[in-house]
Amino acid sequence: MTVYGDKKSGNCYKIKLTLALLNIDYQWQDVDIMAGGSQTKAFLAKNPNGKLPIIELDDGRVLAESNAIIGYLAAGSRLIPDDKFNNALMYQWLFFEQYSHEPCIAVARFIKLYQGMPVERQAEFDNLQIQGGKVLKLIDNQLAGQAFMLGELFSLADIALYAYTHVAHEGGFDLSVYPNLQQWLANVESQAGFVSMLD
After folding, report:
1. Is residue 90 part of a domain?
2. Strand 2-5 versus strand 27-30 pairing type
3. pTM for this entry
């Protein structure tokens, strides 16, 4: 399969990390979003929504949306709980990541890292610091006394949340004030097959 992505994107990194942890072969195709790479006619033919990441299977089928992709890749693996309730908890955190976490942590990082802090987005950035701090504190509380988001069970919930959390400092967030979260980052990084964002 081919992964179309931006190496600095957390959403794209989720795919890369899942593939590495499961030892699945793939090809990587860099797409420069700042240069309009996801808005070309060729890319829009694959994903009319014009967003990264996508995967293209050997038979030509294309799948978009990062959490849908990692769910597809990890089907039947240790990364998806068999237990019905734990499975639902995993999806709870996947939805949380996209609707509460990513809109704060990833957007603040985009404004600072990709856009270089334009003046017209300063007020938005300041508000994201407040909202993002609440999100990080919630995760830190969840991780009190446990190794992963689902207790001692490492799952896609950890992969999805790790992707942007571990680079949250690039969006202005101080991770040193969240000790449980810091330990969790180390726990994720100790998994066999782990690769960093820029490896």
Report:
1. yes
2. parallel
3. 0.96
